[in-house]
Amino acid sequence: MALKLIKSAKALYEGLMTVFVHLFRKPVTLEYPEKRRILNDAFRGKPEVNGCVGCGICKKVCPSGAINYKKDENGKVYFYEFDLKKCIFCGNCAYYCPKAAIKMTGEYELACDNPQGLKLDYKGGIND
User: Fold this and answer.
1) Model pLDDT for residues 10-20, shown as the tens digit of each residue
2) What is 3-25 written as a DSSP string?
3) Per DSSP, what are the bridge partners of residue 77?
4) Could you give the 3-state DSSP secondary structure of residue 46?
5) Are 128 and 51 in contact (CB under 8 A)?
6) Is 36 helix (H, G, I), strand (E, B) or coil?
7) Residue 21 phi/psi, 5° resolution?
8) What are 44-53's pLDDT values in tens digits?
9) CA 58, CA 54: separation in Å to the nearest integer?
10) Does 88 fall in a domain?
């Protein structure tokens, strides 16, 4: 009986000490959305297209097939689409783009109710 009481007291002491030690540490979590984490420069968020020439390299290097575009009869790209449901945010499209037309932004709040909201359509500024 005394041995059981000593073990229980020891367990209680260890538990209280653990709580006491963590009481004065900096919290790991943030009060999201009031406070937002500061992202580093290497973060890969929502892709953005500006100044695409329609070479097709991004579509070839995309491992998930999230990039699609349509060309007119002259071979000019008139419609560019990112499907964020498929995108794994690897950044290959931005890395291999010869004109640096694709940038990975810091935007990460991409949740939406409508699945069509996860398709980014870029219709202007292509082949300018």
Assistant:
1) 999 999 999 99
2) HHHHHHHHHHHHHHHHHHHHHTS
3) 71
4) coil
5) yes
6) coil
7) -65, -45
8) 999 998 888 8
9) 9
10) yes
**Residue 61 neighbours by CB under 8 Å, 6+ apart:** 92, 93, 95, 96
Asked whether 104 and 94 are in contact (CB, 8 A), the reply is yes
Handedness of CA 86, 90, 96, 97 (dihedral sign): positive
Looking up residue 113, the CATH number of its domain turns out to be 3.30.70.3270
Q: Which residue has the tokens 């229980």?
A: 8
**At 83, phi and psi to the nearest 5?**
-100, 100
Q: pTM of the predicted model, to two decimals?
A: 0.69
The alpha carbon of 42 is separated from its chain's Cα centroid by a whole number of angstroms, namely 11
- Could you list the residue range(s) of the whole structural domain that residue 89 is in? 47-122
Q: Which tokens in the block code for residue 123?
A: 């219709």
